[in-house]
Amino acid sequence: MSQITACLLFILLVLAQAYARDTITPSESLNDGDLLVSSDETFALGFFSTTPGHKYVGIWYNNISVKTKVWVANRQTPITDSNVSLVITSNGTLAVTTSNSTILWSVNSSSSSVVTNPVAKLLDTGNFVVTSNSSEESFAWQSFDYPTDTLLPGMKLGYDLRTGLNRNLTAWKSETDPSPGDDCVAMNIHGDPELTVFFGYVKRWRSGPWTGDDFNGIPEMSTYTKTGFSFKFVDNSNEIYYSYDMSNKSILTRLMANNTGRVQRWVWTGQTWSLFWSMPNNACEYGKCGAYSTCDPNASPICACLDGFEPKSSTNWNLGDWSDGCMRKHRLDCVNGTDGFLVVKKAMLPDTSNSTVDRSLSLDQCRTTCLRNCSCTGYSNADVRNGGSGCIIWSTKIMDLRLFRLYEYGGQDFFVRLAAQDIESNSHESKTRVAIITVCTVVGFLLLVLTGYCILKRKKSRGTTVPVYYSKTDHNMGESNGGMKDVELPLIDFGTLMTATNNFSTENLLGEGGFGPVYKGKIGAGQEIAVKRLSKDSVQGIDEFKNEVMLIAKLQHRNLVRLQGYCIQGEEIMLIYEYMANGSLDAFLFDKSRGTLLDWKTRFHIIAGVARGLLYLHQDSRLRVIHRDLKASNILLDKDMNPKISDFGMARISAGDEIITKTRRVVGTYGYMSPEYAMDGIFSVKSDVYSYGVLVLELISGQKNRGVFLSQPHLYLLGNAWKLWNEGRCLELIDPLISSYFSQSEVMKCIHIGLLCVQECPEDRPTMQSVAFMIDSSDPSLPKPKKPGFIAKRDSSESSSCSTKKELYSVDDETITAVTGR
Ligand SMILES: *[C@@H]1O[C@H](CO)[C@@H](O)[C@H](O)[C@H]1NC(C)=O
Ligand SMILES: *[C@@H]1O[C@H](CO)[C@@H](O)[C@H](O)[C@H]1NC(C)=O
Ligand SMILES: *[C@@H]1O[C@H](CO)[C@@H](O)[C@H](O)[C@H]1NC(C)=O
Ligand SMILES: *[C@@H]1O[C@H](CO)[C@@H](O)[C@H](O)[C@H]1NC(C)=O
Ligand SMILES: *[C@@H]1O[C@H](CO)[C@@H](O)[C@H](O)[C@H]1NC(C)=O
Ligand SMILES: *[C@@H]1O[C@H](CO)[C@@H](O)[C@H](O)[C@H]1NC(C)=O
Ligand SMILES: *[C@@H]1O[C@H](CO)[C@@H](O)[C@H](O)[C@H]1NC(C)=O
Ligand SMILES: *[C@@H]1O[C@H](CO)[C@@H](O)[C@H](O)[C@H]1NC(C)=O
Ligand SMILES: *[C@@H]1O[C@H](CO)[C@@H](O)[C@H](O)[C@H]1NC(C)=O
Ligand SMILES: *[C@@H]1O[C@H](CO)[C@@H](O)[C@H](O)[C@H]1NC(C)=O
Ligand SMILES: *[C@@H]1O[C@H](CO)[C@@H](O)[C@H](O)[C@H]1NC(C)=O
Ligand SMILES: *[C@@H]1O[C@H](CO)[C@@H](O)[C@H](O)[C@H]1NC(C)=O
Q: EC number(s) on record (predicted)?
């Protein structure tokens, strides 16, 4: 009997050993060589050494191949003794002791309250905490309050004003020395709080103040929220801090101070850490351009004096040393009150550390307040949400004012105070422009009033004679539109469209799309529209059509062409879209003269925009729309060259599946169609990814991916790109029309992404989410691409490497022709 008990006890002991523990108690210390592992096995805590003889207590990721330290307890006091252990004393002190109980390092828990029955526990978040009881309600002490160089999800970066705790990140001195280095990422709480990167106590970079949803200087945050990040900024009388979270806990990410003087975000890709974001990332570092100047990394020179200012030392300035900055041409005249303001558009706000914030003021009140105070040098909105509110007033020199490009997100109006003479000289040139704008506004206003009147009148008369024409949102779809805006899609009558398009005259014809001709039109107060006149046989039943159109109208995204209305009259079926001033991408891309207008910056902007639009279609909208005909002619450009995807959802209207089976016609365009789709009509989000890859390579090379059945695959785009890639000469792919500056690494990254997207096997291709991720990270580590899928005649010797649907690739030309019917 006792033998059995002993045996059971032994088994229990062995089992207990197999499960790593996550707590230390006064009776159970942690010896050198043992590990604490958090309950979900994400983090581990133990002793480590980077140089022989120097021991540290640290936390790292438990489950990944790279031992990445996220926290070091005793970074300044390495332990040199052997046979040490981490203990918690009965009064709650965490300490590293030798075998004879000499304390080598220790931290006190909560100084105010007595800690009873202390337990130290490593949580799943990576937080190492001391609690009074094992209840995790309140912590007597936590490692999250003493960050080293890494900010994990849920950690706070900033101040606890009640306790005076300042949580900041300080880089390791070197790869092997965890002691504090020069680089520090901290919350600067003077004035309007902002994140600041210091390098040896010298400011190097600022995030700009928090202006509602993100930091004014990090507009890309708004796109990161789409990939699962959420950001938090708290500024009240108790605390001022920033923190972030990741919705998918299995994606590991960390923000850290790098000893090269940068703040960086890394994301674990499964094999390595990939650099997702890194600041500063361009020449516009703090102080580069001195005071009263703007910095634009894409301009040449990057620094410019603000209007009304001139270089302090023109010799230095002309030599490219801009640090002296600029000074006023004329002194302010506060006494007589003649000063005025000049607006700087799309500005990253200047250093706010000496600014004052009043969230109750409007922009107008802000202006008056500034004019009243002689030391005020500029002002802006403190919050940009809902049209802007609140007031920031600068009263010292304007430092570190940066500019965003027109088509970049972010930036806001900043108002610089100037003497009356300087404003006059500046507005002189723009006076005529102002006059024109004023006249236009007045005329526009009159027109608006007029049309408003007309519409009202018409609506009234309609009410009596015509049954409901302005249809409400679709009732059937009420539940399934989660995450999407409810829209009222107007039914526009045929007569209006006749007038708008001048009876569908040929002058108004914009082009012939896959589903019918598209006309330009003008309605109301000159609002421009595009009218797509569907050919009658391309649409199935009217009811299904209406349902689909309502669904398509709910797909709203910056990178999708917006559907504004529709029209059904007898056999006429029309869709009304917003008009895109710059037409379609192919008209630029494949044109020798217009191609030069697409510099690399713009092309990259298009690559990124289309990725976002497609990601939205695939994933962010509830509908999960597969485009099926993504190509350069379906990318439209607005007046600022923002790309917008058109013709999405058309496959739904025409009920593509049935068309394939009935007419054997595949929706799509050769050159852009993935092999599995062209051959077999198998489509998935991955066939869109393929088309996107082709588009990316076309944008880089300026060449059209034509060529079905070429006997020499390397003569057409994908084959050529693949060949150059393998020979390490892929920069030769670049369109010779891109003459101005381009970033080699950006181009290389895009070629790499393009090749990943056109891989033969759909399962090898990345999802659009990964693609968006890769585009956004500044230095992603990407897998090696495999051979692209060509729709070309194959040698019988060449077998497909793709596991699925192998037989598909051995079809002959005739089969394909039969399938396409084009
Ligand atoms: C950690 O790795 C082990 C095996 O390597 C695996 O069984 C476990 O699921 C992983 N845990 C997490 C949280 O990824
Ligand atoms: C707790 O106990 C340790 C040693 O047992 C001692 O060094 C330390 O001062 C004590 N801390 C407090 C807050 O009393
Ligand atoms: C380490 O310390 C433990 C007691 O804390 C002791 O039993 C053991 O002999 C020591 N080992 C060495 C190598 O000193
Ligand atoms: C404890 O051991 C260390 C060496 O590990 C020694 O230097 C120290 O004097 C010892 N202290 C006591 C109280 O024995
Ligand atoms: C811990 O608290 C004790 C008593 O208040 C104090 O003497 C000691 O210096 C503290 N230790 C640390 C590391 O703060
Ligand atoms: C902690 O545990 C002790 C004894 O187990 C108990 O008396 C005390 O109320 C507990 N405290 C809290 C905060 O739960
Ligand atoms: C970072 O935090 C430490 C400890 O709170 C503090 O001594 C240091 O001054 C802080 N650095 C900055 C730049 O705020
Ligand atoms: C979370 O990310 C992992 C790895 O990237 C992925 O496999 C998983 O599907 C994601 N889970 C959710 C709910 O998105
Ligand atoms: C610091 O940044 C450089 C360049 O981005 C990178 O190679 C290096 O690994 C980073 N250091 C750490 C400790 O992450
Ligand atoms: C204010 O106006 C008066 C009269 O126009 C002028 O003489 C004076 O110089 C002005 N003051 C300043 C500070 O410019
Ligand atoms: C002008 O602004 C400065 C800085 O914000 C402030 O200290 C001063 O009190 C203000 N003066 C007046 C008259 O409001
Ligand atoms: C803010 O004020 C301090 C102290 O007067 C000064 O040293 C610093 O240069 C000022 N910063 C800016 C950006 O004006």
A: 2.7.11.1
